[in-house]
Every structure is written in C-alpha cells, then in structure tokens.
Write a structure and sequence with these properties.
This protein is α/β, with parallel strands linked by helices. The chain has 9 helices and 14 strands. The strands form 2 sheets. Strands 5-4-3-2-1-12-13-14 form an 8-stranded mixed beta sheet. It starts with 5 loop residues before the first strand and ends in a 5-residue tail after the last helix.
Length: about 280
C-alpha cells in the first residue's frame, strides 16, 4: 500500500451509507487524501445527474467515472473528459432483438444525456421494472416501435428476478449479437432478489474509466487502490493493484478480495487509513 497515488471507490453500498448520506469519517478521509496529493475517484453505475444528486459540488473528489465507465468527468473543473457510447448499428440491432423477445427494457440516450431513456414494456410483468420506471419517470419516454431512434445509445437495462441460469443464458445470447457489446451484472439497488443486466460498448468498464484517468495523469496501475461491494465492481477491482470489498458485499463474492467494514461503518475511511498515517 506504499506509494498509492489514486484511490477509486464505488458509491452505493460502499462510500455512501444505506440512506445515501456520507459519514463524517469518509469526508475527512477524502480531505486528508487530497492533502497528500492522492487522486480521489468515485466510480459508479449512476449516471452523472444521479451522481450530482448524492455528491455535493464541494465534496473533494477529483474525478467521477459514471455509468459504469461510459463517461469520465472532472469533478473539479466540471468537464466531461471521456465517453463511450454504443454505435448506432449496434443500438439498432439491440433494440430490434429486445422487441422481438418482448422483454422489459430501458434504452438510454448517449452520454452525457443518458439520464434520459426510452422504455418498453414486454409481455412479462415485472415489479422491479415498474419501480425503476416510477423513480425515473420524469426522464422517460415510451419507445415507438414503428419509429426507432437512429443514433448512438449509451446502454440498455433489462431487469430479471434472481435466476442464475436465466442470467447466464441471456448474457450469452446478448453478447453473441455483435462483438461491440458486453453485459455487466449488478444487484438491484432498489429491491433484493433482482438482477440488473446492463448492456454497454465492450470497452465500457469502471476499470477502463479509472485507467483513462491514470493515463492522463501518468499514474501506473501499481499505484492504485479500489473499493467496491458488488458484481459490477469487479472491473474496477481487477484493475486496481490493491482492492477491497465491503462487509455488506454478497456472500458469494467475498472470497475474491480482502474485506473491510460495511458501508454503514465507514468502509472508505477504514480502507484508506494506512495511506494517511
């Protein structure tokens, strides 16, 4: 843990408490990291608008990797520094595929406007789909199947009940459609026992987003540390040299990395304390 120059943390279930507030210990740790000239990165599945809903403008992060790596934002200068959307050809192929399968899905506008999205209700009732829609209805519009969007899209979201076999089958089916795409799995932040299937450009990942920052600043992989709590943090934790999971992570993944206290018990502050000595 010597010579760390960049620390990246997931937000929900990691840096944020369950009520989306931030502990004083975590805020103090951010300030102290800054005093030591260590770059502070939030790496999250949230889009940029939802990041701004939970992080105050003066909170001392340096960068935000948002939408699982589809965008990189300089938190200090308020500038978008990198983004990666799905090409129009892939977006159209995915739209047609999901409509033909008659599944519930959301299709998101390209970065940086990817808080806006189209929605499609399939044949299968899904309470979690409706909950997500209710939370985001202000930025949602129905997908017109007779007049599909023609340009790039940031990502797709499909929500299914917890079912490993079905997830693996859908993942293989989706990724076989075209080489440009990849599937990222996340546990639902809204309701337990649901899987969120997120479809992005194949280069989109939290790890690649953090790597983009490292390349810009001349920081090597050996000088990085990461903290997460879920499946969608694996890309981040596989990139950072020193990686940790929180105690509140799913039981089946805790063996992969050293475990620190839960997000309710200052996981971030605890994990960086050796850097602040």
């Amino acid at each position: 843990m010597k010579n760390i120059k960049l620390v990246a943390t997931d937000l929900d279930g990691t840096f944020l408490k369950n009520d989306r507030t931030i502990s004083e210990a975590n805020i103090e740790a951010l300030h102290k990291l800054g005093e030591k000239k260590i770059i502070r990165v939030a790496a999250t599945g949230r889009n940029l608008q939802k990041v701004k809903a939970v992080l105050q403008p003066d909170l001392p992060f340096d960068y935000v990797v948002f939408s699982s790596g589809a965008g990189v934002y300089n938190w200090q200068t308020r500038q978008l520094v990198a983004n990666q959307n799905l090409k129009a050809t892939s977006a159209t192929k995915l739209l047609n595929h999901f409509i033909s399968r008659d599944v519930n899905f959301h299709a998101f506008f390209p970065v940086p406007d990817n808080h806006k999205h189209y929605y499609y209700r399939g044949k299968e009732d899904c309470e979690e789909f409706e909950r997500y829609f209710k939370f985001n209805v202000a930025h949602a519009e129905p997908l017109k199947t007779d007049s599909l969007p023609k340009g790039e899209l940031c990502q797709f979201l499909i929500i299914i009940k917890q079912n490993e076999e079905r997830f693996n089958r859908l993942k293989s089916e989706i990724e076989a459609l075209c080489p440009e795409i990849r599937v990222i799995r996340a546990s639902s932040p809204i309701t337990p026992r649901y899987i969120w299937i997120e479809v992005f450009h194949h280069s989109v990942s939290k790890g690649n987003g953090v790597n983009e920052i490292c390349k810009r600043l001349g920081i090597s992989k050996d000088e990085t540390m990461g903290l997460g709590n879920d499946y969608n943090d694996f890309d981040l934790l596989e990139f950072t040299m020193h990686s940790f999971l929180t105690e509140n992570s799913p039981h089946e993944i805790k063996h992969k990395y050293p475990v620190v206290p839960s997000n309710e018990n200052d996981a971030f502050a605890f994990s960086v304390q050796s850097l602040l000595a």
